Amino acid sequence: MPSLSSAQGLDIAGALMALGAGACWAGYILFGTRTGKQASGGITVAFGMTVAAIVLVPVGAVTQGLALISWEVLPLGLLVAVLSSALPYSLEMVALRNMPTQAFSVLMSLEPAIAALAGFVILSEQLSLLQWLAIGLVIIASIGSSFTPKKAVEMGV
Length: 157
What we know:
Elements: E1 6-7, E2 10-11, H1 12-38, H2 41-64, H3 73-98, H4 101-109, H5 111-123, H6 129-146, H7 150-155
Antiparallel strand pairs: 1-2
């Protein structure tokens, strides 16, 4: 008898998490576009980073204690914060404000492919043919959605 997490080879929990991630990305793009047009992208990013810090700093403090405030860790942490979050999210807010959401979503769909290539080049990670196919299908679907006429999208067609 198949378990609750698997039915005929399909990992239901994984599929639900993928659908949830897709919904979160769609929300990020829609809300990011709206907030980017209403306020400065920098303000939006600063607010989001502040909320994230309020949530995560206590977790880090509890699990790692004073090790987080050593002179060896602080500059590295600042560099990681700027390069992995503050700068990319600021640039995304500028892009969301200045380009159509469909074009932005196509560019976002390239991120898994770029991450996979970085993993291959930097970490010598190997993806299976099926994994590369999945990445390619996501990119193709996003590109295909960009060819959908805007009026048809607005009308729900």
